[in-house]
């Protein structure tokens, strides 16, 4: 999967893609080269997903006592 495609995935799509990758990696029928490529793709997806989660966490706001929103 290309980097541009990975970056377009939502967090949910990223998790689904990683799950599919894991299922493929568990198969005994994959050639070694394909296994390495799937592993690399999965790691890139997880890295992208972690960055997206970090971004969302930074955007989370909490409500202060006086009703104002404050960055979390």
Please render the helix and strand layout as text.
Layout: H1 3-8, H2 11-26, H3 32-59, E1 61-63, E2 69-71
Antiparallel strand pairs: 1-2
Summed up, what is this model?
By secondary structure, the protein is mostly helical. The protein has helices at residues 3-8, 11-26, 32-59; strands at residues 61-63, 69-71. A two-stranded antiparallel ribbon has the order 1-2.
Walkthrough of the structure:
- With 72 residues, the protein is mainly alpha-helical.
- The protein has one domain.
- Helices cover 69% and strands 8% of the residues.
- A two-stranded antiparallel sheet has the order 1-2.
- The longest helix has 28 residues.
- It is elongated.
- The mean pLDDT is 86.
- In total, the number of domains comes to 1
Strand % is: 5-15%
Q: Got a strand count?
A: 2
| Whole-angstrom Rg | 17 Å
What does the overall shape look like?
Answer: elongated
Structural class: mainly alpha
Amino- and carboxy-terminal Cα gap: 34 Å
The description of the largest β-sheet is: 2 strands, antiparallel
Uncertain residue ranges: none
Strand-and-helix sequence, N→C? HHHEE
Mean of residue pLDDT values? 86
Strand order of the largest sheet: 1-2
The helix tally amounts to: 3
Helix content: 55-70%
Structural key phrases:
single chain; 72 residues; mainly alpha; two-stranded antiparallel sheet; 8% strand
């Amino acid at each position: 999967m290309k980097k541009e495609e990975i970056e377009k995935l939502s967090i949910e799509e990223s998790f689904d893609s990683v799950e599919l990758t894991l299922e493929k990696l568990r198969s005994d029928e994959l050639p070694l080269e394909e296994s390495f490529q799937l592993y690399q793709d999965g790691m890139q997806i997880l890295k992208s997903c972690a960055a997206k989660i970090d971004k969302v966490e930074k955007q989370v706001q909490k409500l202060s006592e006086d009703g104002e929103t404050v960055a979390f």
